[in-house]
Amino acid sequence: MKKLMLGNEAIARGAYEAGITVATAYPGTPSTEITECIANYDEIYSEWSPNEKVALEVAIGASFAGARAVCSMKHVGLNVAADPLFTASYTGVNGGLVICVADDPGMHSSQNEQDSRHYAKASKVPMLEPSDSRECKEYIKKAFEISEQFDTPVILRLTTRISHSQSLVEIEERVEAPLKAYRKDPDKYVMMPGMARKRHAIVEERTAKLAEFAEKSDLNSIVWGSREIGIIASGISYQYAREAFKDASFLKLGMVHPLPEKLIAEFASKVKTLYVIEELDPFIESFLKERGIPCTGKEKLPVTGEYSANLLREKLLGIKEEIYNNLNESVPVRPPVLCPGCPHRGVFYVLKKNKLTVSGDIGCYTLGTLAPLESMDTCVCMGASIGVAHGMEKAMGSESARKAVAVIGDSTFIHSGITGLIDIVYNKGTSTVIILDNSITGMTGHQDNPATGFTIKGEPTRKVDLVKLCQAVGVERIRVCDPFELDEFSKVLKEELAAEELSVIIAQRPCALLKSVKYKGLVRVNREKCQNCKVCMGLGCPAIVDTGNGIVINDALCVGCDLCLKVCKFGAFEKAGDNNA
Amino acid sequence: MRNLSVMIAGVGGQGTLLTSRVIGAAAIKAGYDVKMSEVHGMSQRGGSVITYVRIGSDVKSPAIEKGEADILLCFEKLEALRWLDYANKDGTIIINDQKIDPMPVITGKAKYPENIVQNIKARFKNVYTIDALDTAKRLGNIKVLNIIMVGLLAKSTGIPADTWREAIRETVKEKFVELNLKAFEEGYKIAGCMLELSN
User: What is the interface pTM, i.e. ipTM, of the complex?
Assistant: First the structure.
């Protein structure tokens, strides 16, 4: 049976068919659906781990124990998981171990545009790269075979356009992969210097064998066309290249590390002009240039952003598409915004009013940077808000901490904020940390986390109590407050900022998109009471619209959270009843 | 087999992803090869969202290039304007006549362009507008706006209505199937009237 599937869904299906029994991940766009889809299979134990490092460690443990395991993350997650990755390369596996990592060229939903292929080379682990959903399913199954054959973790590299594109996939049966026997083997699984030295030599031999394998594997294949132009490409770039160059010859690389040197040299020798087409860094191109194989790549193509067939035609062939229907009108941008009813809106409204320096973090609330809330000063990586606040205080003196806060979401706090908090306790900081507890992992589309009380499969479980957690690491001032109670929240914030010691404010209100959140009755504007002072416009609520002739509520967007009722001094907002079925 | 590229433009939260999935499912049922591309994550929070559906006999890239879309299905007027260069010269442009102010307009830093629909009509032959929000409200749930848009589009694809109905049954959550089928019929009916008028 053929089915239209997201790349991520196809990976989940492939992992299922490959007989895996353990899947771990921390959610991150564009990788999230891999594990969400896997969680639907009863045969597979799945978990959201607190962060990618833990996720990979759990998968490594499962592999040592003899199971086939998969661990998934976005590109920046691999930075977090890099520590176990580099040494798992030395230990190798027992049951097959595949790490799915999704890069985000164009940064649709990320803070950087790093190219994960460097990790494969640096950690000496083979990497496969599919170019559509069908290959996603096929390659993950091959990745498990390679993992077990060569005793190595295998990375499956994806990009946004592979993960989030849909194409046809042939569904096959699951083949069980029975648990392999576990044998105590410290020479393989305990990486003390004496053992690791021996393993390093084995890793080098393995890479050489994998390079031989790459020469013959059907993962790499040639499609002969005209010999005038030859193209080496992998992943989504291959598809763009096929669109742009209908008649060229192609060397499609399904395995991007190690690369097949002889195959590449042979292909290069048979074509007149050779292009290497790859998004992001010149990874393949550098391999060719180091070996003296002439080719054209980044001298004509960008290192930044996504490619397209048009871009290739323009940059490589000089054919510029004529745009005949451009209206030449200035179109206002439409940046993403905090949703109507978003609990973070209350927090940022108060932070802006108090003109604070705000070190921020990764999540929906990063949108608090944009107008009109414009509250956030910094955002680096998961968990950085707390360390950055502490560093600013240590640089500028504790007075500065009276006008500064760190803001971090509940899931992000568990991911890697807690260590920053321990640092402040230990090193006598006086920061104010606000945990934005909306009871869910929001931006990636509502995944449970250790603080929600539910597992990935929706089973009730023990819930990390954020108050007790903060107490346990030594925080003495902890306040819990509803960010929609603006007056109370402001009061608490001022008290905690003034206190010359570390405090944690837990701003608690669930995400408005959660099914359990039911606000009643929409809001409307009482025209007689509205003075058109536009204070409400400072909320940045998409449902409040300034028509030029007064403020109105867009009832297709309003959810009835009533935050606007609390900022209007004239009582111009009132409940309109529920006219939006 | 004729290739057909459908591009859907809207605002995060309007349900464009489900629309593309219904279109994809219908095209598969009709025997085509399909590739679709969506963007998840940050832009879904009220940002400008586009999805591509490419239908044909052997589709390579899942992305639609400028000047390539045979049908531009726009859930919001400003988004129609933003993505207009993706439509091909003889393309069909279907616009839901709804205005959702983006934040720069809300905060007064930019102006929402005027006469969008008229300007687009001046450039393209096949432009259809509908107040799908009003129709959705009439059906009792504004969320079905996306399937009304599917109904509108269905008429211009050559894929039979029953195939669409089946695709909807398979794609939407079970408890919303009836409501969404009703929404489809509304859109399909309106498209019929429009085509008659334009002929």
Answer: 0.92
